[in-house]
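FAQ

Q: What does a record look like?
A: Structure on top, sequence underneath. For example:
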């Protein structure tokens, strides 16, 4: 199964990180208007990109110390490093695709000694205690107008993907071209509703176990 892949793609917020660190950040610091913007996005009245622009605008002035203190609270799945090391030993590249903030991903990976992992996300800027956002991975042809178009980053006909949320729905729809989709949370509910085949998981320990079992079957 996995040996056919040279790359495996994975979401970050709520997948690699234990919680959705963007949602938790907004819940902790942003004006409550961010919730209204979230509802407009969920209901399809504004795009994901527009939602993020509005939500970043709802953030207050913040010192570098406060921002760093928050980022230092971001925890990753306790089995993720074992999973990543397993892939690395097999010469399989893991690539993070996120519609969240690159700053959170970068600093968290560095803290865990995983700075060699490639990632694509929206660029959160923090200068003069103010926040702004840039969309370096925006795609005009993206049907849902995500800030970071994940589909445009996957060029393989067959691929493996790991996710948990709404930003992964478009990837799930491509499952006919994929051999494996690992899903939990909102993504799992979507797969059930749309009758999309998937493998449920709770932690990367479950995914690692699946890969090791497949390896054993291949070696029999």
């Amino acid at each position: 199964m996995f040996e056919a892949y040279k790359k495996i793609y994975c979401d970050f917020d709520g997948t690699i990180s234990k919680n959705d660190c963007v949602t938790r950040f907004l819940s902790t610091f942003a004006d409550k208007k961010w919730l209204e913007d979230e509802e407009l996005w969920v209901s399809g009245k504004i795009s994901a990109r527009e939602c993020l622009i509005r939500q970043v605008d709802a953030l207050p002035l913040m010192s570098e110390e406060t921002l760093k203190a928050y980022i230092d609270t971001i925890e990753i799945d306790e089995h993720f490093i074992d999973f990543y090391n397993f892939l690395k030993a097999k010469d399989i590249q893991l690539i993070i695709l996120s519609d969240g903030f690159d700053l959170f991903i970068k600093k968290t990976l560095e803290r865990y000694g995983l700075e060699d992992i490639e990632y694509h996300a929206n660029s959160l800027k923090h200068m003069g205690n103010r926040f702004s956002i840039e969309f370096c991975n925006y795609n005009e042809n993206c049907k849902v107008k995500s800030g970071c178009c994940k589909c445009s980053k996957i060029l393989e006909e067959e691929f493996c993907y790991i996710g948990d949320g709404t930003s992964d729905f478009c990837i799930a729809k491509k499952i006919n071209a994929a051999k494996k989709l690992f899903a939990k949370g909102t993504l799992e509910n979507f797969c059930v509703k749309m009758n999309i085949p998937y493998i449920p998981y709770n932690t990367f320990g479950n995914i690692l176990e699946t890969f090791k079992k497949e390896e054993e079957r291949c070696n029999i």
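Q: Is there anything notable about this one?
A: The longest strand covers residues 118-127.
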